[in-house]
Predict the 3D structure of the following.
Amino acid sequence: MNNKIYFTPGPSELYPTVPQHMQTALQEKIGSISHRSKQFQEIFAHAVAGLRQLLQLPDTYEVLFLASATEVWERAIQNNVRQESFHLVNGSFSDRFFETALELGMKAQKHEVPFGEGFRLQDIAVPETAELVALIQNETSSGACIPVEDINRFREKAGADALLYVDAVSSLPYPAFDFEKVDAVYFSVQKCFGLPAGLGVWLLNKRCIARAEALAESGHVIGSYHSLPSLLSKAKVNQTVETPNVLGIYLLGKVLEDMNSKGVEQIRRETKAKADLLYAYLEQSRTFSPAVKNPAHRSPTTLVANTTVPASEVNKQLAAFDMAIGSGYGKYKESQIRIANFPAHSPQQVEALVAKLRELFG
Ligand SMILES: *Cc1c(COP(=O)(O)O)cnc(C)c1O
């Protein structure tokens, strides 16, 4: 029996109702039903409706299920870019999207700032010719985020035809996006939705769809089974092209139901309060200090701190009390810690983590 509470930034602690929903899924034999059945169509529609409600998603947006956020990167480039994309890069995930565009033969450009820094809008010039602008709302590797007010300014910065893509993988549903100001937002479920990994969600508007259709029309290759027209033709009838992660879609719908009955505003308030508690501790700790200097760019959902005690030692000591946090990313593995503050983490659990860190490390 594993009683650990996972404050790791994804996979992370499961939403508290997941075990009970899994039990029901087994009783209902969800793993055996056909993905062409009416029952599956209802499961699909339920998850989409739950997402629309939680995120206050306009009707002009479509909801698509893919394998992961990593897959969304590849599909976005294939379907929405003929030759040029532009990327904000300040860590490993934003850089990986940029690299994906290069690997797919695009002329990708980036505006890069050092690891651990956010972006200053006045420093960013978006090339007029960029067809897709990749914004990283929450860079999970470094703990830097872009405030929603800043995201909203990119429409005026980019060319009229540019599609604005927002990576909100490790922050949604915390940021209250103005979906009219962007064109696509994506996430995967093992971060803030407190679910087992294996499902990416792509929210996108008609401009993205029109672009894919125009590219295909002109003979540009936009992929095969997960091209946008192919994905959409099935989503329209609450189905997927391939045999999907039915259990994942089922659990997402159930957790969304729970999140909606709590209310997104309450989830956001709690997230903010827990983040304030964690940062207040990190600010005055003898061992840790927030890695992102500018408080406006500190992520409320994935907090990163420099540590004078190696991250592996911090985790070793926490393990004795059934707690796990994330190590630093890549070369910061030992010199930083990462703490997830997701809706699955209760205020009591976060308070207990802070108390234990203070007791053990000052
Ligand atoms: C985790 C993560 C991804 C990749 O998600 P997968 O589900 O592993 O594909 C992309 N972007 C950010 C910011 C992430 O945190």
Q: What stands out?
A: Residues 55 and 173 are 7 Å apart (CA to CA). The longest helix spans residues 264-284. The chain has a mean pLDDT of 98.
